[in-house]
Amino acid sequence: MSDSTPYVLVLYYSRFGATASMARQLAKGVESVSGIQARLRTVPPVSPTCEAVDPEIPEEGAVYADLEELRHCSALALGSPTRFGNMAAPLKHFLDTTSNLWMNGALIDKPACAFTSTSSLHGGQEITLLTMLVPLLHHGMVYAGLPYSETALFTTQSGGTPYGATHLAGQRSDRLLDENESELAYAQGRRLARLALALDGMRKEAS
């Protein structure tokens, strides 16, 4: 696809790999839709040591996101492990740098979703998704959860909520995505891609 192809920015932070696995599955769902692509991006960790400097390119995994990629995306999928019912600090730190995009309305009417992983079954999956959507609403984005037409929401015994895809990573964060979790992450990416194309057209007509 060319550089002019619309894309969904799949932006995540993952410490042990569980959220990264979700991001990859969600990206597969995005790219199952013709005419749009997924861009997997991460953010650097936040260090308590002021002198610590992270390399410009990570040693492995997705490259770091920049604000221009966020500005020009057609949709945003935001992923993070749970930290006391909220997103992890590195992802929050990145969002705290987006005030210029907010002032210019760069993300208004673009669809967005959130996804998360926890170590325990009742580790705050749903409240984390709800708190993650707050900055997206401030940006004027259109939040897209998972409808109950996705039957895996009825059968899952681990992750998966109507507020977004989730994953039970286990105490050691080594539990792989199960069938239902994979299906729901894929479905969320596919839905977000379809909405992105539809809302792209609406914004172009309005302008």
Automatic annotation (TrEMBL):
Its cellular-component GO annotations read: membrane
Q: Keyword annotations for this protein?
A: Flavoprotein, FMN
Q: Nucleotide-binding as a keyword?
A: no
GO MF assignments:
electron transfer activity; FMN binding; NAD(P)H dehydrogenase (quinone) activity
Return the PROSITE patterns for the record: FLAVODOXIN, FLAVODOXIN_LIKE
**Domain Flavodoxin-like: start-end pairs:** 8-193
Q: What does the record give as cofactor?
A: FMN
* InterPro entries on file: Flavodoxin/NO_synth, Flavodoxin_CS, Flavoprotein-like_sf, Flavoprotein_WrbA-like, FMN_Rdtase-like_dom
Q: Does the keyword Lyase apply?
A: no
> By its UniProt entry, which NCBIfam families does this protein fall under?
flav_wrbA, PRK03767.1
Family designation: Belongs to the WrbA family.
Q: How is this protein named in the record? A: NAD(P)H:quinone oxidoreductase
